[in-house]
């Protein structure tokens, strides 16, 4: 079994990430996989009335301002209205319907191939698809490709309004050719991007029943198993996918599943070999960023910065690399560069992770007005969450993590419990443990904190959370061990968290 490399889980969170948590974008893979890409034109091929990047960011910020003035009911109404504005005119398919005919034509020629969408210009690819579909509206394959392209736009650019467009395009493909594996795999990817992992697994299995070698379906199946906490099955799925379709999408997932089990050496070896074999700009940016994230997790900041530089040399607008570079800059001592870099990220892509990170950077810097600036960033998380939910995205994990430290602690706990009920992963265990802790329920929190670290996954935030919970329950010796491990592993894991970990550890040492 050759070494592997590819993962960018939905939520590795970028997801994970992330992903995504978790495998997210897969540059060299199926139609929707590219690195760059600003929001594109509508499914109809007519003029796009949805907001452009600048207008979308402004809309999120207006909603964030509203959240500071209005009560929750008014905010919800505003979020729905904004979501409608995002998608106005964009999900109407009438202009491309074929006048009632039912026959489907074959998939389009090379201009519609997955390689086109992996070329680095998603806008141009979508425009080509739409032009083709105006003349060939029965091309079920190109409808599936278009749907996947919208999924990729939404995930890489933080624009959840693209998900309804993706849904409509994939539905059109299946109307023309029921059970075609490309559209089923697209539905699996869409469900995963919306954090509906049971449906993602169902659609991936349906696609694989039609085509056992579908790279997209094999990859999304791994994603779904990981995000459902079914790690042994995910490990087996990576081996099966590797045997059928070895390549960057499968390789990075292979690496991530092993990282979750604490096998950092194998993860790094696989990613390095994948980077050595990557040829497209999208694949280079993607894999180099995965290596940067892996090294940052291990506190190897200089190496992480080198990988992020390599990623940005391939694609200077690749969001995960820009975000990762700013985090590594802070951890490496370049606080001014980190603030500037994260400001640049959130000015274009106001997503929960970067917003919280920037808010904490402001708090640590402590200049005049920085506390207000930080609060503004935290308020914008609520705005993004409202928009995401209006477009069918389950945002409970994002809500729980952000609100536990910087928002409504009770809502954080509700969100964390809801997410745990849906999927029992190391990430949801950590989120629930921390939400319980900030609500003063430490005895209940401790088993979840231990479960979050039980697989061997080396994550300083998890260790920090466990250590603080152990301290709160009077387990001082265990708390010293956990907090020391967090700071030894990744001393710059969080602007505020690392400070609190040091303070707690100092008090524990003094009390010995």
Summarize the structure.
With 512 residues, the chain is mainly alpha-helical.
Description of the structure:
- Helix content is 68%, strand content 0%.
- It is built from 25 helices and no strands.
- Helix 5 packs parallel to helix 7.
- The chain is globular.
- The N and C termini lie far apart (50 Å).
Secondary structure elements and pairings:
Elements: H1 53-69, H2 72-87, H3 114-117, H4 122-135, H5 140-157, H6 162-176, H7 181-193, H8 197-210, H9 215-227, H10 231-244, H11 248-260, H12 264-277, H13 281-297, H14 301-314, H15 319-331, H16 335-348, H17 352-365, H18 370-390, H19 396-406, H20 409-422, H21 426-438, H22 442-452, H23 460-472, H24 476-489, H25 495-510
Helix pairs in contact: 1-2, 1-18, 2-18, 4-5, 5-6, 5-7, 6-7, 7-8, 7-9, 8-9, 9-10, 9-11, 10-11, 11-12, 12-13, 13-14, 13-15, 14-15, 15-16, 16-17, 17-18, 18-19, 19-20, 19-21, 20-21, 21-22, 21-23, 22-23, 23-24, 23-25, 24-25
> What is the helix/strand order?
HHHHHHHHHHHHHHHHHHHHHHHHH
Helix content: 55-70%
**Looking at the structure, what is the overall shape?**
globular
- Beta strands, count: 0
Question: If helices are DSSP runs of H or I spanning 4 or more residues, what is the number of helices?
Answer: 25
Query: End-to-end distance, in Å?
Result: 50 Å
Mean pLDDT: 80
Task: Please compute the radius of gyration using only Cα atoms.
Answer: 22 Å
Largest sheet: none
Low-confidence stretches: 1-51, 66-119
What proportion of the residues form beta strands (DSSP E)?
A: under 5%
Secondary-structure class? mainly alpha
């Amino acid at each position: 079994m050759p070494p592997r490399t590819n993962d960018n889980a939905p939520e590795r969170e970028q997801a994970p990430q992330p992903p995504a948590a978790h495998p997210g974008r897969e540059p060299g893979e199926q139609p929707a996989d590219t690195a760059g890409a600003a929001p594109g034109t509508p499914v109809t091929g007519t003029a796009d009335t949805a907001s452009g990047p600048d207008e979308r960011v402004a809309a999120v910020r207006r909603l964030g301002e509203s959240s500071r003035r209005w009560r929750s009911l008014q905010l919800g109404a505003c979020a729905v209205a904004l979501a409608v504005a995002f998608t106005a005119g964009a999900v109407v398919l009438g202009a491309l319907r074929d006048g009632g005919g039912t026959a489907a034509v074959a998939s389009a020629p090379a201009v519609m191939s997955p390689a086109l969408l992996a070329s680095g210009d998603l806008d141009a690819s979508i425009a080509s698809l739409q032009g083709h579909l105006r003349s060939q509206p029965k091309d079920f394959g190109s409808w599936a490709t278009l749907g996947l392209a919208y999924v990729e736009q939404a995930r890489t650019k933080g624009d959840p309004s693209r998900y309804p467009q993706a849904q409509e395009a994939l539905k059109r493909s299946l109307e023309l050719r029921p059970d075609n594996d490309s559209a089923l795999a697209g539905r699996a990817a869409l469900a995963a991007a919306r954090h509906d992992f049971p449906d993602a697994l169902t659609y991936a299995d349906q696609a694989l029943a039609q085509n056992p070698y579908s790279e997209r379906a094999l990859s999304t199946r791994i994603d779904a198993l990981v995000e459902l906490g079914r790690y042994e099955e995910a490990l087996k799925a990576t081996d099966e996918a590797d045997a059928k379709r070895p390549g960057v999408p499968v390789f990075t997932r292979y690496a991530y599943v092993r990282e979750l089990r604490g096998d950092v050496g194998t993860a790094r070896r696989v990613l390095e070999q994948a980077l050595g074999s990557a040829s497209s700009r999208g694949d280079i940016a993607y894999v180099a960023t995965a290596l940067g994230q892996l090294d940052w997790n291990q506190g190897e900041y200089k190496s992480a910065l080198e990988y992020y530089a390599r990623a940005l040399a391939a694609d200077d607008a690749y969001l995960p690399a820009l975000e990762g570079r700013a985090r590594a800059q802070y951890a490496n001592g370049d606080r001014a560069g980190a603030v500037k870099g994260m400001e640049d990220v959130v000015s274009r892509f106001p997503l929960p992770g970067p917003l919280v990170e920037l808010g904490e950077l402001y708090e640590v810097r402590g200049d005049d007005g920085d506390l207000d600036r930080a609060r503004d960033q935290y308020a914008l998380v609520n705005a993004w969450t409202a928009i995401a939910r209006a477009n069918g995205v389950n945002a409970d994990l994002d809500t729980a993590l952000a609100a536990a430290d910087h928002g409504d602690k009770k809502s954080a706990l509700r969100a964390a419990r809801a997410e745990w009920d849906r999927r029992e992963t190391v990430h949801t265990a950590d989120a629930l443990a921390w939400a319980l802790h900030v609500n003063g329920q430490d005895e209940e929190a401790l088993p979840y904190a231990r479960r979050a670290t039980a697989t061997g996954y080396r994550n300083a935030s998890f260790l920090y959370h466990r250590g603080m919970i152990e301290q709160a329950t009077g387990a001082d010796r265990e708390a010293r061990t956990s907090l020391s491990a967090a700071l030894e592993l990744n001393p710059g894991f969080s602007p505020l968290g690392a400070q609190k970990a040091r303070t707690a550890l100092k008090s524990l040492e003094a009390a010995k």
